[in-house]
Write a structure and sequence with these properties.
It is built from no helices and nine strands. The protein is mainly beta.
């Protein structure tokens, strides 16, 4: 549903590493790499604060666009362009 987030591995996307998919509105999605840009650890799904945390070294990223909220990471999470077909309920992630 709207406001939800899932972590998934999608064939052919992000070199086979997981992504985090956020449903911001009915037909608006944000897809970010789940791999921290600091040292490659997998990030967690957002908690109550809404940020995406990396438990390895404490980096935090924005769930709306992947920007760094707290280091040591200094590079945003990779963001993927998406399209959503409402009639088919199909999200397409561009690679």
């Amino acid at each position: 549903g709207v406001g939800g987030a899932v972590k998934a591995t999608v064939s052919g996307v992000n070199d086979g590493r997981p992504v985090v998919i956020f449903r911001k509105e009915t037909a608006v999605f944000v897809v970010l790499s789940a791999i921290c840009t600091h040292q490659g650890c997998e990030v967690e799904l957002p908690g109550s604060g809404g940020g995406i945390d990396c438990i390895c070294h404490g980096s935090q990223f924005s769930s709306s666009d992947g920007t760094v909220l707290k280091g040591p990471a200094d590079t945003p999470l990779k963001k993927f362009t998406t399209t959503y077909n409402e009639s088919k309920k199909m999200l397409t992630i561009m690679i």
